[in-house]
Structure formats: C-alpha cells, structure tokens
Amino acid sequence: MRQKISVREVGLRDGLQIHPTFMPTADKLAWIAAEAAAGVREIEVTSYVPPKLIPQFADAEAVTLGAIAIPGLTVAALIPNLRGAQRGIELGVHKLNFVMSVSETHNLKNVRRPPADSVTDFRAIVELVKSQPPDKRPIIVGGLSTALGCSYEGRIAVSQVVKYATELMEAGADELVVADTVGYADPRLVREVFRAVLAEVGATPVGAHFHDTRGTGLANVSAALDCGVSRFDASLAGLGGCPFAPGASGNIVMEDLCFMLDSMGLDTGVDLERLIEVRKIVAHSLPDIPMQGALAKAGLPRNYVSGARTQAA
Ligand code: ZN
After folding, report:
1. C-alpha–C-alpha distance, residues 267 and 12, integer Å
2. What spacing in Å lies between the alpha carbon of 145 and ligand 1's midpoint?
C-alpha cells in the first residue's frame, strides 16, 4: 500500500483573491469539476468575505452550491470571522478554513485585532459549528498564516507558532494548517516549526501551505514530509502571487507537487495528464493571469508510469 497524501487545491481562493479580473462563475465551476475529475478530492472554492471587500468572491454562494453537487469532492471555504462561518453552515459547505496570522502586525492589518482576539473569535466559531446537528456540522480548520515569516515583521518566533497552534487545537479545531504566506521558509525552518507544532498538538492533523515566492516551495514540501505531514495546499499553475512581490510565483504549483509526490511513490489519487489539461480552462478564462509550472512546460519523463494509472489498471 502506498502512503496516501492529501493535496488540496486553493487556487480559486488564494490564487484569485488578488487577481483584478472576475472569473465567471461558470468557469470557476468548470475548473472545480475538471480538477475533481482529475482526482483532486479537496478544493477550497471561495472565501466568505463581504463581496464589497473582494469582488472576486461575490459569487461565493453559487460556487459553493455548484461544487457541493460534485460527488466525492470535499468543498472548503475560507472564513475570516463568525459571519463567514454562519454563511458556510447555511450553504452546507463541508469544511471551514478559519485563518489568523501569527504575526501581530499582519493580523492587525488584516483583521484589525491582535492574534489573541482572533483566538477568541475562533472559540466562538467552534462553538457555533459544534452546536449544529451532526449531519450539518462542517469540519473546522484552524489556519496560521505568516507562521514562517511575515512581510512586516520578518522572522516569526517558533514559540509563537506553537502557542497559537496549541490554542486553536485546544479551542476545538479538527485540523490545523501552518502557512508560509509570503514564501520566506526554507527546509530547515520547516523542520523546526513543524516538529515543534506536531509535538504539541497530539493527534490533530496538521497540513502545510507553502508559497514558492523564492523557489523553496517543493523543498519545503519534502522537509514537511520528513516530519510526517501528509496534507498539502497547492494551486493549479501556481496561481496566487503576493501583492508585496509583483510578478513573483504564488502558491506551490499543484501539477509539480503531484508529480513530485507521485514520482516518490506516494499516492495522491491524481491523474497527472488530466490535471495538466485543467490549465486550459484557466488560461482561456483569464488570459492575463500569470501561470507557472515546470511539469506543464517540460512534460512527463519518458516511459513515466503514473501511480494513479497503475492503480486504476
Ligand atoms: Zn497562501
């Protein structure tokens, strides 16, 4: 049995949130359906922020409901606050990704409160989630952004990451995600942070969210794998540039991540050739969006036998 790794598409949220052109709802749903058909089983499809704040997510309801109709797909959405959690529960979304910054300055700029107040908000969200009947209760994820560096503060103390990870776990998070929001991390730092967090949060699963802004993305995945992490966020074509680094790469590239894992003998469940085909939907819909990806440029190695194919055979 090959070890299963969960790869989670975040491009529709992380990738599109800073893109100025609205992607038509039908195109978002075509992207979601095609990527699910390629074998990606979890997709963060939108963000429940007020549409006035980010017009790209004005169609959050339609995208959520369309995605939920796809069999076998876990549909996740980002929530900044309790109101977002309420919207998600009303829509029947499967997973709520709450996010706060470990960096005090980043959290103040982003949600106008210190991190400690965000933990208090998270407690109220968990209370709301856990008060739902079991069949209407989404999975609640506690996300820690800027955990491996911050564009305002630079290095972030590992002890602060562990502190907030522990607090979110104790508040009742079903899962945690530790994020290198601005692509500052390197494999040594990844090992240090993930080992420290995993040592404190017991059985709570911890996912990794890396950006490839400085070219260290897949090396960081490898380091996190060494620590026992088996859940990774990525975005198709590496969508998701940083507003502070114009032109830089965004999230780690889903296609390259899946190729590396597959090549290492790990089971992502993803058909690489079908995944590459999904890029056409995005390129056609948003011709001006920068698309990254080494696998799509170079193609699969000669005589490459994809793990997903071997299993299907
Ligand atoms: Zn991100």
Report:
1. 23
2. 8
Structure tokens at 10: 């975040």
pLDDT of residue 93: 98
pLDDT along the chain (313 residues), means of 10: 94 94 97 98 97 94 98 97 97 98 94 95 98 96 96 95 98 98 96 98 97 96 98 96 72 98 96 97 96 96 79 52
- Give the integer Cα–Cα distance in Å for 102 and 147: 6
d(CA 187, CA 193): 10
CA of 251 to the centre of ligand 1 (A): 6
80/41 Cα distance (integer angstroms):
23
Q: What are the φ and ψ backbone dihedral angles of 207, each rounded to 5 degrees?
A: -95, 165
CATH of 6-312, one of 3.40.50.1000, 3.40.640.10, 3.20.20.70, 3.40.50.11060: 3.20.20.70
Q: What is the pLDDT of residue 309?
A: 62
Whole-angstrom Cα Rg for the chain: 18
Q: How far is the CA of 38 from the centre of ligand 1 (A)?
A: 22
Residues 150, 227, 242, 258: which is the catalytic one? Answer: 242
242 is catalytic: yes
Q: How far is the CA of 19 from the centre of ligand 1 (A)?
A: 14
CA of 302 to the centre of ligand 1 (A): 33
pTM of the model: 0.96
Residue pointed to by tokens 């090959």: 2
- The burial of 131, by beta-carbon neighbours within 10 Å (0-12 exposed, 13-18 middle, 19 or more buried), is given as exposed
Tell me how far CA of residue 110 lies from CA of 81, 101, 105, 145, in angstroms.
Answer: 12, 8, 9, 11
Q: Which two tokens stand for residue 294?
A: 């080494």
Instruction: Spell out the SS3 assignment of 173-201.
Output: CCEEEEEECCCCCCHHHHHHHHHHHHHHC
> What's the rounded Cα separation, in Å, for the pair 13 and 107?
19
